[in-house]
């Protein structure tokens, strides 16, 4: 009997030892939880985007969507909107540095709609810590890639969309140096990682997404389900640029045509001037007829006339200055008078029969002018009347 009990005790001990051993083996092969890397997070498309719920409990959050992965965020920047020449963005309207175009308000309308559907808090954007942490990792990773591969695009994003990003410190891990000394006086240095600065700063706009700003833009970027809306917004931005470019090019073409016309007109006027000057020089060099001298003297005070007003006797007793043509034989000699007139604070000498009119501001003698017209009428008599 004692022997049977001894065997039972031994068997029980062996069984217990075996069970403990199996449990130890199973525990040693079970996976140990580790911190997810950016690459692992990028492969996890089911990370919940949690927003503070619309109730009195400050720590109550509700899922409104999915946090976009690094590749999904970077894919947004492959839109044609981000491939146009930098100068073309000047075609777009801005308010306080923020872009404005028709359709850009779809972002705010969409966010408000989704928050309302999920009963999320609609004022004062509130994301839980885990959402912010993963979103910042993915967003930072995307910005790093863009800065390395496409630095011009990075600067455009930084200065046109992320107005809070005054520097690039959030892209790199920063350290402080801690120095130690041993008993022999040897100094060693240790890099102590500092808390990473987030590349997401919703506080810059006081967590307000009621209009297009950096808060609205970043929220739409890290929200996977918002990307189709963003694509439509940037499509509208492209349309706005193209419409403005067409108007600009049309205006440039109109200015070019006007300038070309002005240039041609100027050349034409120059040719006319040169031709007129040549004619005037020929006229000036030749001897003038009596009638030409009288008409020149009556209108310029000079027997030779002036470059812009001189008379040519095209036929006997018929004279022209290019603007008027006068037949001296049709002037009424009986009504013809020569007299001074005070006008514009100057004395103007008039020669006229009330139909044909000659005048000059030149300081000439009335006696000399009367003698000139007497000679003219002797050579080319005008009409007479009884009074």
Structure described in brief:
The protein has 387 residues and is an alpha+beta fold. The chain has ten helices and twelve strands.
Question: Can you put this structure into words, describing what you see?
Answer:
- It is a single chain.
- With about 375 residues, the chain is α+β, with helices and mostly antiparallel strands.
- The protein folds into two domains: about 180 residues, no CATH class; about 90 residues, no CATH class.
- About 45% of the residues lie in helices and about 15% in strands.
- The strands form five sheets. The protein has a three-stranded antiparallel sheet, with helices on one face.
- A hairpin with a 4-residue loop joins strand 8 and strand 9.
- Helix 3 crosses helix 5, helix 5 packs across helix 6 and helix 9 runs antiparallel to helix 10.
- The chain is rod-shaped.
């Amino acid at each position: 009997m004692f022997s049977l009990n001894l065997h039972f005790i031994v068997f029980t001990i062996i069984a217990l030892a075996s069970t403990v051993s199996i449990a130890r083996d199973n525990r040693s092969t079970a996976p140990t939880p580790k911190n997810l890397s950016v690459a692992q997070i990028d492969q996890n498309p089911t990370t919940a985007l949690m927003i503070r719920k619309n109730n009195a409990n400050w720590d109550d959050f509700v899922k409104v969507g999915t946090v976009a992965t690094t590749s999904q965020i970077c894919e947004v920047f492959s839109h044609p909107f981000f491939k146009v020449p930098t100068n073309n963005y000047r075609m777009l309207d801005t308010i306080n540095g923020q872009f404005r175009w028709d359709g850009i308000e779809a972002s705010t309308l969409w966010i408000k709609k989704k928050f309302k559907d999920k009963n999320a808090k609609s004022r004062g954007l509130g994301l839980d810590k885990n959402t912010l942490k993963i979103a910042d990792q993915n967003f930072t990773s995307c910005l790093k890639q863009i800065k390395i591969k496409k630095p011009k695009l990075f600067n455009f994003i930084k200065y046109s969309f992320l107005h809070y990003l005054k520097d690039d410190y959030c892209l790199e891990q920063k350290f402080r140096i801690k120095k130690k000394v041993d008993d022999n006086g040897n100094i060693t240095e240790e890099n102590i990682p500092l808390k990473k600065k987030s590349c997401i700063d919703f506080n810059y706009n006081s967590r307000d997404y009621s209009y297009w700003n950096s808060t609205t833009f970043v929220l739409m970027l890290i929200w996977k389900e918002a990307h189709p809306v963003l694509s439509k917004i940037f499509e509208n931005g492209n349309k706005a640029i193209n419409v403005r470019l067409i108007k600009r090019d049309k205006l440039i073409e109109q200015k070019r045509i006007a300038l070309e016309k002005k240039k041609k007109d100027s050349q034409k006027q120059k040719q006319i001037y040169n031709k007129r000057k040549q004619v005037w020089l020929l006229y000036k060099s030749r001897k003038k007829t009596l009638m030409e001298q009288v008409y020149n003297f009556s209108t310029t005070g000079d027997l030779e006339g002036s470059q812009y007003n001189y008379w040519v006797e095209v036929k006997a007793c018929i004279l022209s200055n290019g603007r008027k043509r006068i037949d001296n034989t049709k002037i009424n000699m009986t009504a013809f008078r020569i007299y001074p007139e005070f006008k514009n604070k100057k004395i103007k000498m008039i020669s006229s029969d009330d139909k044909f009119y000659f005048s000059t501001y030149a300081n000439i003698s009335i006696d000399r002018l009367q003698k000139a017209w007497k000679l003219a009428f002797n050579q080319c008599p005008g009409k007479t009347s009884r009074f």
